[in-house]
């Protein structure tokens, strides 16, 4: 896989970033205070992908994971109608505290994101109060994406939003992050992963965090060894309130299954 160098004399690695100082309140206020057009487009794709998958499957226990959950709840929302448990897997201590604060009753600002999912019949038909459901199934676990290998393919559905390319400027760490995410999923598990295209890094509060410059080709190449079938698409919506990138990329599909045929869309 060919990835562009950051061009810096010293590439900023994941361990170099000030994750202990990540400010989730500032992050949510800047990125998720309102439902942006980009997120609405992502939610539309998510609800079709997961809603279509689980509508066709005979369900046993379903275990979901959102890798690098940060201070974003809507990937977990997309899994919770079918999941017996959703692990919010996060490294930053500040983000862990934020997620824990949302478990009992998440903030009203997240209601439009759940409402957008409910435009699909699979979500609208859910016979539960979303806050009660979130409290029941969501659990927070602190850890590094690079440490997921120890769990094997534990989870039967997974998401990873703005993580692999938004935690490092090192292309090798980006590729390893994608590998660790996909390796945490069971064969045949549906997944969705979002990426900032050509990100130059991003400020959160008083600190600046690194990013790896990737596009559709590089996202596809990072996933190909582990996924199939899958799609990679650049969102039609133009960049909104967020700065320092040229667009968003969403990949969705299934973990490669060597034992049986993966379900078609």
From TrEMBL:
<dbReference type="InterPro" id="IPR000940">
    <property type="entry name" value="NNMT_TEMT_trans"/>
</dbReference>
<protein>
    <submittedName>
        <fullName>SCO2525 family SAM-dependent methyltransferase</fullName>
    </submittedName>
</protein>
<keyword id="KW-0949">S-adenosyl-L-methionine</keyword>
<dbReference type="GO" id="GO:0008168">
    <property type="term" value="F:methyltransferase activity"/>
</dbReference>
<dbReference type="InterPro" id="IPR029063">
    <property type="entry name" value="SAM-dependent_MTases_sf"/>
</dbReference>
<keyword id="KW-0489">Methyltransferase</keyword>
<dbReference type="Pfam" id="PF01234">
    <property type="entry name" value="NNMT_PNMT_TEMT"/>
</dbReference>
<dbReference type="GO" id="GO:0032259">
    <property type="term" value="P:methylation"/>
</dbReference>
<keyword id="KW-0808">Transferase</keyword>
């Amino acid at each position: 896989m060919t990835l562009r160098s950051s061009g810096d004399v010293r590439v900023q690695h994941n361990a170099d970033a000030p994750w202990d100082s990540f400010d989730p309140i500032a992050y949510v206020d800047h990125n998720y205070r309102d439902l942006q057009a980009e997120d609405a487009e992502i939610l539309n794709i998510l609800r079709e992908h997961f809603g279509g998958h689980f509508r066709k499957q005979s369900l046993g226990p379903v275990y979901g994971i959102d890798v690098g959950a940060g201070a974003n709840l809507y990937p977990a929302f997309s899994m919770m109608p079918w999941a017996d448990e959703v692990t919010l897997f996060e490294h930053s201590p500040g983000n862990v505290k934020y997620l824990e604060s949302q478990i009992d009753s998440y903030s009203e600002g997240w209601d439009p994101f759940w409402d957008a999912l409910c435009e699909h019949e699979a979500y609208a038909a859910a016979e539960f109060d979303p806050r009660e459901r979130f409290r029941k199934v969501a659990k927070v676990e602190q850890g590094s994406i690079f440490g997921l290998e120890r769990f094997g393919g534990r989870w039967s559905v997974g998401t990873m939003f703005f993580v692999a390319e938004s935690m490092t400027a090192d292309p090798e760490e980006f590729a390893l992050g994608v590998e660790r995410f996909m390796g945490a999923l069971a064969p045949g598990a549906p997944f969705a992963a979002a990426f900032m295209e050509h990100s130059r890094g991003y400020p959160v509060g008083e600190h600046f965090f690194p990013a790896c410059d990737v596009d559709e080709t590089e996202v596809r190449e990072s996933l190909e060894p582990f996924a199939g079938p899958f799609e990679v698409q650049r969102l039609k919506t133009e960049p909104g309130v967020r700065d320092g990138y040229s667009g968003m990329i969403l990949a969705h599909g299934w973990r490669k299954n060597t034992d049986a045929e993966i379900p078609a869309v």
